[in-house]
């Protein structure tokens, strides 16, 4: 009931939500200095997204870090529903995930849910979503995720890695549970109803591949939380460790309210946007400023409700001092929206030029990310099998 | 409503049902002399199970035979839920399927639904049902099904063959449809709710493997009909031919009412039963005879409601004249149940000795039946894929 008021599901989300309240409703914990210190202790430093609490809540992140420190096998897991090209809202958690991968030397399992996107879509063929999965891998490559430690599972093609685990999960979940967790109705297609078990299965895949109790950390948007609550409920009964999570806030879209969303392309900067197009989108964006320059100078703007400011805070200004200056200059009316936008537009354009060049080069080695070239399918264990 | 009265679902069935009424309710067609003649025309002869209408109803069997005669690519499809060892009720349609394979030279796709049996079971591990799937293949081998033309799909291990097709089917089916077709409730696990798409997917697999519009004939018990009705409803929208069916009656169990069922082991003769155990089960069986020899001589028995007589009719007496003599001798009281059982027991024991010897030898070549050694996984077609 309360969750519906806040309106966050894996398929739709507002951006400027009351994250503190959300944490309470979802039963997660806010990220505190204690966990941040623990991370600094093992990583040697702290990422800007942690410092600014872009990643702001968690479940068992402390337990994960303790396990890591004690030498226990750990892994990362995140993913993407390839419904279109990648935009900045998608790569936000991937940037942090890459940092974790580099600092902690962890394997990352990355799920491309082309099946889910096909089931959820009004139009579009399975082949198209599958193609987009391969497109999206180019962005992982462009961000520099290590191909020897990043293992991409494309659901429609790599299902055999997940299915033996998914069978066991599916037996534990009734239709009632799915209705309550995901808001399905009787007219939902059974692909959608079944799909969550596949997203859950990846959390247990490292344990199967390594035949070990692998501690998994999932960095992902808070909108994915319903999957992880269910995954954690079920883990003990299947003798897997509960996966830990660290949740990021959603990058606001360039329109009024809402997260950066593929379903509203004018509100999102895609990694494939020509830099000039991206600039135009930014220049036309909604802001937290006043309607006119005169009013802005007089009353100041509201950076806390401004998607342009949030772009600086979450992605495009690493320097805390400069960010604070920008915040204050906006508040006091010294900084006008046009100027603030123009500077962001330049930074975004520069990022895109660089990213697109790396993306083009990645065509040569995208296959190196595919799990199918690196791991055998886990066996349905069958010691008494009657074959030779 | 009416279907519930007759009480046939894929998971539970009575044996002595009103098959004529069932055909009407299910909207299938009774097998007539026309189809039998068409079969004789292409096969050169007619199998005893057709002559006696053990296979008694169909959908598009005539269209299938016409397609076959015209040189169109055709295939057979049947399967087994490996919930235990194979019993005589299971092998009945396999014997006819082998005959079709031999006479028409057809490839057979055979699904082992270890996932479904695990989802449906109260106890038992996935590994156990998977082991049973391999056990059950030995029976296909013992019956002489051609390993070069018989391709076994074990769901938990060969899911990648089915999944791209299953994704497309799942999108077309809502939970409401599943409820109505299979009687699921909100407390059914989502494995069961999803499973039907996998049974349906095999009907379209030959078309994917051969990249052709392959006409598929499914010989199977009438209790599997809900799957095929749904499969046929969906086929045109996915651009596959509707699969044809030919339905057999269910072999009665040795108890009162009910089909030969793994859930009541004393009512079933397993292919792995020691011959003496099988004999004892037959001698203890319920019959259509009178309580005493004296009453039997006076009033005669009722072979139409007798599982012993049905065993002769459906499996153990090929000679029509001898079968009719037995029927009449029972009816008139000239044949006593003990005598009739003893003769059946000898035939069954002889069959088992022979079958078990072949079954043992099959251990050496069971792998030859597995689809994974013979066909590549069909591709999610993706001509624009960005990999090299």
Outline the structure in words.
The structure is a homodimer of 388-residue chains. By secondary structure, chain A is α/β, with parallel strands linked by helices. Chain A has two domains: 241 residues, Rossmann fold; 102 residues, Orthogonal Bundle (Tyrosyl-Transfer RNA Synthetase), CATH 1.10.240. In chain A, 51% of the residues lie in helices and 11% in strands. Chain A has 18 helices and nine strands. In chain A, the strands form two sheets. Chain A has a seven-stranded mixed sheet with strand order 3-4-9-8-5-6-7, with helices on both faces. In chain A, α13 links the parallel β8 and β9. In chain A, α8 packs across α18, α14 runs antiparallel to α18 and α16 packs across α18.
In a few lines, what is going on in this structure?
Chains A, B: It catalyses: tRNA(Trp) + L-tryptophan + ATP = L-tryptophyl-tRNA(Trp) + AMP + diphosphate + H(+). Two copies of one chain form a homodimer. Chain A is an alpha/beta fold.
CATH architecture of the largest domain in chain A: 3-Layer(aba) Sandwich
Helicity of chain A, in percent?
A: 40-55%
What radius of gyration of chain A results from the CA coordinates? Answer: 21 Å
Q: Which structural class should the secondary elements of chain A be placed in?
A: alpha/beta
Number-wise, the strands of chain A total: 9
Spatial sequence of strands, sheet with the most strands of chain A: 3-4-9-8-5-6-7
Give start-end ranges of low-pLDDT stretches of chain A: 383-388
Task: Calculate the terminal CA-CA distance of chain A, rounded to whole Å.
Answer: 56 Å
Number of helices of chain A: 18
User: Which fold name fills CATH's third level, the topology of the largest domain in chain A?
Assistant: Rossmann fold
Strand share of the residues of chain A? 5-15%
CATH homolog superfamily of the largest domain in chain A: HUPs
Largest interface: A-B, 51 and 51 residues
For the largest beta-sheet of chain A, the strand count, sense and barrel status come to: 7 strands, mixed
The residue-averaged pLDDT of chain A reads 92
Q: What is the CATH C-level name of the largest domain in chain A? A: Alpha Beta
Gross morphology of chain A is globular
Q: Could you say how many structural domains of chain A there are in total?
A: 2
């Amino acid at each position: 009931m309360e969750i519906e008021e806040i309106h966050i599901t894996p398929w739709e989300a507002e951006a400027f939500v009351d994250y503190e309240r959300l944490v309470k409703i979802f039963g997660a914990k806010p990220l505190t200095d204690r966990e941040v210190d623990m991370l600094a202790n093992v990583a040697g430093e702290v990422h800007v997204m942690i410092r600014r609490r872009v990643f702001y809540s968690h479940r068992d992140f402390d337990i994960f870090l303790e396990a890591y420190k004690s030498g226990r096998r750990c892994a990362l897991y995140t993913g993407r529903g390839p419904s279109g090209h990648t935009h900045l809202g998608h790569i936000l958690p991937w940037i942090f995930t890459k940092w974790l991968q580099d600092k902690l030397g962890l394997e990352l399992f990355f799920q491309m849910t082309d099946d889910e996107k096909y089931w959820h879509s009004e139009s579009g063929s399975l082949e198209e979503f599958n193609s987009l999965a391969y497109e999206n891998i180019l962005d992982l490559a462009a961000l520099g995720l290590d191909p020897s430690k990043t293992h991409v599972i494309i659901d429609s093609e790599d299902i055999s890695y997940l299915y033996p685990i998914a069978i066991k999960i599916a037996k534990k979940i009734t239709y009632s549970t799915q209705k309550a967790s995901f808001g399905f109705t009787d007219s939902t297609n059974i692909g959608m109803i079944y799909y969550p078990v596949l997203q859950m299965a990846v959390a247990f895949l490292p344990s199967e591949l390594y035949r070990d109790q692998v501690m998994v950390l999932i960095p992902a948007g808070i909108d994915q939380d319903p999957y992880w609550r269910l995954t954690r409920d079920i883990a003990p009964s299947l003798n897997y460790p509960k996966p830990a999570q660290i949740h990021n806030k959603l990058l606001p879209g360039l329109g009024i309210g809402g997260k950066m969303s593929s379903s509203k392309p004018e509100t999102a900067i895609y990694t494939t946007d020509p830099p000039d197009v991206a600039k135009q989108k930014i220049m036309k964006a909604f802001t937290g400023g006043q309607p006119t320059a005169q009013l802005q100078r007089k009353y100041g703007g509201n950076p806390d409700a401004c998607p342009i400011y949030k772009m600086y805070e979450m992605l495009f200004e690493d320097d805390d001092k400069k960010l604070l200056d920008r915040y204050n200059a906006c508040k006091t009316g010294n900084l006008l929206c046009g100027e603030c936008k123009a500077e962001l537009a330049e930074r975004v354009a520069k990022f895109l030029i660089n990213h697109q060049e790396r993306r083009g080069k990645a065509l040569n080695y995208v296959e190196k990310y595919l799990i199918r070239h690196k791991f055998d399918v886990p066996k349905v264990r069958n010691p008494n099998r009657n074959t030779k």
